[in-house]
Design a protein that fits this description.
Helix content: 40-55%
Strand order of the largest sheet: 4-3-5-7-6-8
Strand content: 15-25%
Distance between the termini: 47 Å
Largest sheet: 6 strands, mixed
């Protein structure tokens, strides 16, 4: 695969493979470089957040705009990322990004920094337990931890840098290296506003720990530690106020984590209202906590269970968990209390620092009782326990339980369809304006005029979905859509397109690239072609039988002794608009001259799209999209097959039907009304796209959920 590079004509990805893989390995990072790229090239990354951050970096260096991105313009008119998140850390990353200004760079930097979090864990464990093997053990547990892997799995986020910075701050505080401690505290503050609150609670915990330990042998240094921690709290408060003020300057309409989608059960409108509402409305608080209560409890149990609950041996450290777990338990937004996303980064540093301290307490307890053998057994059990959680909950598992369902898990693979879509990506000129869907946007986001289908943004200032989508269509020269990975975005965008302005520039396997004012034949056309057989059709009055002459050695058969009736339905496939041919491969054993055998037809179930606005005018609206059946079922074409249509007995022959798709629906290619005059066999059904189109008709309905 060769992708366009902003600073040179075209650079093969493989030329950067060795460099980044060496960097990744040297950082002890668990994730392989190629695997991280496979997530990108299999279109399992999204505009939120890899595409948005990549565009913000690119526009800062090459567009003359400060961290400008386009996905949130309805709620952030300035377009600056600082109007949503104040993340000065990005200034430090800009020189690295300049070397290769692509989303791949952000993914690799994130992977390396997450891996670096193992280093302070190793040093802290080795120093506190005086055992290098224990240090290596706990560093490995960190790298294999499913919560840590989940942070790295889902796109790019500045929160991913928090574990390394905070764990390093703990290490340098314990080793009394004040300058390095404040350096990493400052780096953590540079990540995002919410870290300030986490650091305040961290300092409170350290103050309480020093108080309960009552180690006053060196009084001067004890007083110095208190001053350092009080200064930390003051610095965090000032930084939080400064961050909120700067964000407000960039975006006066900012609503941080606002609306019913986050706090509907609590009744808060913004994140800043959460503590106030929680205190003043205990009934709402109880209702918010009880929402998905079992999932929230499982989330907390998994977090602590991955380290065998060792942080509970250091009870005071639970103070550090208060900020994020409070948000998770008071919210009705599932990503806050599920694995597979960036949010566990707010608790991972405290989880592993608590594990180090808990392990030290347990080791000291065992050594005092001279239970070395039991201690060795404990370490073995600890490894087995952690590996169990890794195997069951790691995103490398194709279906980890209690993880966020929106994300694709398992070892990523770039299939043939992905390769076709990548070819369409390369057909878009480097500086051309383009509108695309969320999972394609990251690969087109290295430009200032790339736009994403507006399904995930917040709508305020009287903006509407109709107006926003139409404005985006009017300002771009190219539109890239893939119905296989995002049917809603494809269908709705086609609905709003003025057919006279856009033409089919390329079409591959159901994905389409449209170009404004293009009226010639597609420069590249790879027809959508699908094959259906016994494995994906639904049987009614038929059976699966072995057949050596069938393509896969098996076929669907309707025997004459079964009587009359329908044989198969399905496969209920969604198709992009265009003209198609469907071919049925059949054979019969009937030797009569004029008997009907079966009816072949193409039928579809018509669907509409419902758009629900969730929120209020004061906090803005998020959108929910749902395709719904209209109750309309229509047969487009049918053909009655008789024994006369077969030239030979017991030999497969093909029968074709042509039809046109100009409606949004799910299609099936059926075998109906089979008779009892002879056996009829189906080997396979082949669907072939003869000609692509952008003309489609369907219903849209709107609802409001306040």
């Amino acid at each position: 695969v060769v992708l366009p590079h902003p600073l040179s004509p075209r650079i093969p990805i493989t030329s950067f493979d060795l460099i980044f893989k060496f960097a990744s390995t040297s950082a002890q990072n668990f994730f392989d470089f190629n695997q991280k790229l496979l997530i990108l090239y299999s279109f399992q990354t999204f505009s939120y957040d890899l595409g948005n951050y990549n565009q913000a970096f690119y526009t800062t260096l090459f567009g003359g705009k400060l961290f400008y991105y386009t996905a949130d313009l309805p709620a952030n008119p300035s377009g600056s990322l600082f109007g949503v998140h104040f993340t000065p850390l990005f200034f430090i990353l800009l020189p690295i990004y300049f070397l290769y200004p692509r989303p791949e760079t952000l993914l690799i930097v994130q992977s390396i920094v997450i891996g670096l979090g193992a280093l302070p864990i190793y040093y802290m464990t080795t120093r506190k337990l005086k055992n290098e093997l224990c240090g290596l053990l706990l560093a490995g547990v960190y790298l294999l931890n499913p919560a840590v892997q989940g942070i790295n799995w889902y796109d790019f986020h500045p929160e991913a840098f928090i574990p390394f910075f905070m764990l390093s701050a703990f290490h340098f505080f314990d080793t009394k290296k004040t300058a390095m401690y404040f350096t990493f505290i400052l780096l953590a503050l540079l990540c995002t506003q919410f870290v300030s609150i986490c650091i305040i609670f961290m300092a409170i915990y350290l103050l309480l720990r020093r108080y309960f330990e009552k180690k006053r042998a060196v009084e001067e240094f004890y007083c110095k530690e208190v001053k350092i921690l009080l200064l930390t709290i003051l610095l965090a408060i000032i930084w939080l106020a400064l961050s909120l003020h700067i964000t407000h300057l960039f975006n006066p309409y900012i609503q941080v984590m606002s609306g019913k989608i986050y706090w509907g059960e609590l009744g808060a409108e913004t994140l800043l209202e959460v503590p106030i509402k929680a205190v003043l409305n205990p009934m709402n608080t109880l209702r918010a906590v009880s929402y998905d209560f079992h999932e929230k409890i499982i989330y907390a149990l998994i977090l602590f269970g991955t380290v065998m609950f060792l942080p509970l041996l250091e009870p005071c450290i639970l103070i550090c968990f208060i900020p994020w777990l409070s948000i998770a338990f008071l919210s009705n937004y599932p990503p806050f209390y599920q694995l597979g996303l960036q949010y566990p980064a707010f608790v991972v540093p405290f989880l592993f620092y608590g594990t180090v301290l808990g392990l030290r307490k347990l080791t000291n307890f065992m050594e005092k009782r001279r239970s070395q053998k039991i201690l060795r057994y404990f370490y073995v059990f600890f490894i087995i326990f952690c590996l169990f959680f890794t195997v069951t909950l790691s995103p490398l598992n194709s279906s980890p339980p209690f993880s966020y369902s929106y994300i694709s898990y398992g070892i990523p693979q770039v299939n043939e369809h992905n390769k076709y879509v990548l070819k369409l990506v390369n057909l878009v000129p480097k500086d051309a304006s383009v509108l695309t869907q969320s999972n394609i946007f990251p690969l087109l986001s290295s430009r200032h005029n790339a736009y994403v289908f507006p399904s995930s943004c917040l709508y305020i200032l009287n903006h509407t979905f109709n107006e926003t989508l139409q404005n985006l269509i009017n300002k771009v020269d190219y539109i890239l859509l893939d119905i296989k990975s995002d049917p809603i975005a494809t269908i709705l965008t086609l609905h709003y397109i003025n057919c006279s302005n856009f033409g089919m520039y390329a079409s591959v396997d159901g994905a389409i690239l449209l170009k404004r004012y293009y009226n010639s034949t597609p420069v590249y056309f790879k027809p959508l072609e699908e094959v259906f057989d016994y494995s994906n059709l639904f049987l009614v009055n038929g059976n699966i039988t072995k057949d050596k002459t069938a393509t896969d050695g098996k076929a669907i058969v309707h025997l004459r002794k079964h009587g009359t009736g329908d044989v198969w339905y399905g496969p209920y496939v969604l198709l992009p608009p265009g003209r198609y041919e469907v071919t049925f491969r059949l054979k019969t054993s009937n030797n009569s001259s004029s008997n009907d055998l079966i009816t072949l037809d193409v039928t579809y179930f018509n669907y509409a799209i419902r758009i629900t606005y969730v929120g209020t005018e004061s906090t803005g609206y998020h959108l929910k999209f749902k395709s719904e059946p209209t109750g309309i079922k229509k047969t487009l074409v049918s053909r009655r097959i008789s024994t006369q249509d077969f030239s030979r007995l017991d030999v497969y022959e093909t029968f074709s039907l042509e039809f046109t798709v100009n409606s949004f629906g799910y299609f099936e290619f059926r075998g109906m009304n089979a008779t009892n005059v002879g056996d009829i066999y189906l080997d396979k059904i082949t669907l072939y796209q003869l000609e692509p189109s952008i003309s489609i008709d369907f219903e849209i309905s709107y609802t409001y959920e306040n």
